[in-house]
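step=encode ok
step=design start
structure_in=
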């Protein structure tokens, strides 16, 4: 990937209407473009990040038995009336079809679609449990769309729904999902900052769980127990002042961003849609359900909020749009250009994604500034002085000092650091 071929360039100034760090940096670095409050276009670099996050999540869902499907965004009013949520769901986008006259919602979630879908399978106990997930755009008429990717009106989300014969089986899978989420956030680079957090459980269970990433920009408040290291949502603490896990009262308050949640739905939706299964005796029993969500775009924004400095973004390697920035400094004569092309092709052949800043009219300062702003894990610098000695300068984005290495050692150096 060559920087001169990117249609969307970096910019020096942040958009005037963006207050969130993630929106400012992602816009300046050419990852996203704002269409309206809470709605963004993902540009080539941004889409590459999103696809890497998506693949991490997909792999972890498949490991624990998830089958991927894709459900429609358009959902008829009749389905939402069966659950009573047509009027209750405050952020539901609604419109009437001009041709058919049907009232339609843009899907903010998919319980109203997946439950009647599974009902058509005519389940027996032998078919259960079953786990279905999708990665799909969601739409919510959000009144507070001021935080960039952290609070959108249109956003990409993974939602998995599980279907069980009883509560015990749901509880078993719920624990597996908790571990899968830990794996996802660890792979995405925020595992050490993300807490499995007790939250209100609603009508079916005493608790649900959120995954909260510590960040000063977070809209949520969590309380971390100094005794057992459990985390509790601030809203739950209002109901009790001690840790629900161990009873200790030594709780540390922190700001955090919710990056995922898991709920035990019980029979709320299966009862509404008469989703049942036949047990061993041929009797009809109501299916027990769970749901598990991660906002991919919110996760991307959270990573930027956590990993940035005064110069730009600092992507974890697992989700970076490319592994390294390659740039030349000084006069780009024929020999240096030849060296740069050779190094670029060596990296590409080795399967290393590289953004080659081949711009001939950009100064060294501009190239360094853009490399830091875009935030790839490695910066590789070529110059005439180094090239004649067969040397290259490399620098990890998270470190202050660059080092000089032999060109022949480049692949080893940036792959094993």
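sequence_out=
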């Amino acid at each position: 990937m060559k920087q001169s071929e990117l249609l969307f360039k970096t910019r020096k100034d942040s958009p005037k209407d963006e207050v969130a760090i993630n929106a400012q940096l992602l816009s300046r670095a050419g990852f996203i473009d704002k269409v309206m409050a809470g709605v963004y276009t993902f540009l080539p670099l941004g889409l590459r990040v999103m696809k890497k996050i998506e693949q991490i999540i997909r792999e972890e869902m498949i490991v624990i038995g998830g089958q991927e499907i894709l459900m429609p965004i358009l959902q008829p009013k009749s389905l939402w009336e069966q659950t009573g949520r047509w009027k209750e769901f405050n952020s539901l986008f609604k419109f009437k079809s001009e041709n058919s006259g049907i009232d339609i919602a843009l899907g903010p979630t998919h319980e109203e679609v997946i439950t009647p879908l599974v009902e058509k399978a005519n389940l027996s106990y032998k078919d259960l449990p079953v786990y279905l997930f999708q990665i799909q755009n969601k739409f919510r008429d959000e009144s507070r769309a001021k935080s960039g990717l952290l609070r959108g009106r249109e956003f990409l989300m993974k939602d998995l729904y599980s279907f069980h014969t009883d509560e015990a089986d749901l509880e078993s899978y719920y624990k597996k999902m908790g571990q899968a989420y830990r794996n996802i956030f660890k792979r995405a680079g925020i595992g050490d900052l993300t807490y499995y957090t007790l939250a209100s459980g609603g009508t079916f269970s005493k608790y649900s769980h959120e995954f909260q990433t510590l960040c000063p920009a977070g809209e949520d408040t969590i309380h971390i127990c100094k005794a057992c290291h459990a985390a509790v949502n601030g809203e739950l603490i209002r109901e009790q002042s001690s840790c629900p896990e161990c009873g200790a009262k030594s709780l540390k308050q922190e700001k955090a961003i919710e990056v995922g949640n898991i709920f035990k739905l019980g029979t709320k939706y299966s009862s509404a849609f008469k989703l049942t299964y036949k047990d061993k005796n041929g009797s009809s029993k109501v299916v027990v359900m769970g749901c598990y969500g991660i906002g991919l775009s919110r996760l991307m924004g959270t990573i930027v909020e956590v990993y940035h400095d005064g110069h730009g973004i600092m992507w974890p390697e697992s989700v970076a749009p490319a592994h390294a920035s390659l740039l030349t400094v000084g006069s780009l004569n024929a020999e240096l250009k030849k060296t740069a092309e050779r190094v670029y092709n060596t990296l590409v052949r080795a399967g290393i994604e590289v953004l080659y800043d081949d711009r001939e009219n950009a100064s060294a300062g501009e190239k360094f500034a853009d490399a830091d702003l875009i935030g790839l894990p490695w910066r590789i610098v070529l110059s005439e002085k180094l090239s004649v000695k067969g040397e290259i300068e490399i620098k990890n984005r998270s470190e202050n000092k660059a080092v000089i290495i032999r060109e022949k050692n480049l692949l080893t150096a940036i792959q094993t650091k």
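step=design ok
step=annotate ok -> The mean pLDDT is 94.
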